[in-house]
Design goal:
about 15% strand; two-stranded antiparallel sheet; alpha+beta; flat; 2 domains
């Protein structure tokens, strides 16, 4: 993603049966890459860890928030704080309850 203030569209397909594509599982979405103002850039520069995640969440910077929270979970999968953060994030993006409870993605 190179240009700011631009919507980028994505699509992911899981091909369940190559000879019959009607059963493919498909998810689509879009990401808006936006220019961050100087105050927000300074906040991001000055934060790390969960504090940085909170800045991302407060400013709807979802792609970076998701990436950061996933990193926390991968590095410390048994940490209850990171597990709770992960479940809250999955709930915020309206995933099915069974996925949220199992912490799957």
């Amino acid at each position: 993603m190179e240009e700011t203030e631009t919507n980028y569209y994505w699509r992911l397909s899981i091909i369940c049966e190559p000879s019959d594509r009607t059963g493919d599982l498909v998810v689509r979405g879009e990401v808006l890459k936006r220019e961050l103002d100087q105050d927000l850039q300074a906040q991001i520069r000055d934060k790390s860890g969960r504090d940085l995640a909170l800045v991302y969440a407060a400013n709807s910077i979802w792609f970076d928030l998701l990436t950061l929270v996933m990193k926390f979970r991968e590095e410390q999968p048994e940490n209850p704080i990171y597990r709770e953060d992960w479940q809250e994030l999955l709930g915020a993006i309206d995933l099915p309850k069974s996925i949220i409870e199992n912490g799957e993605f």
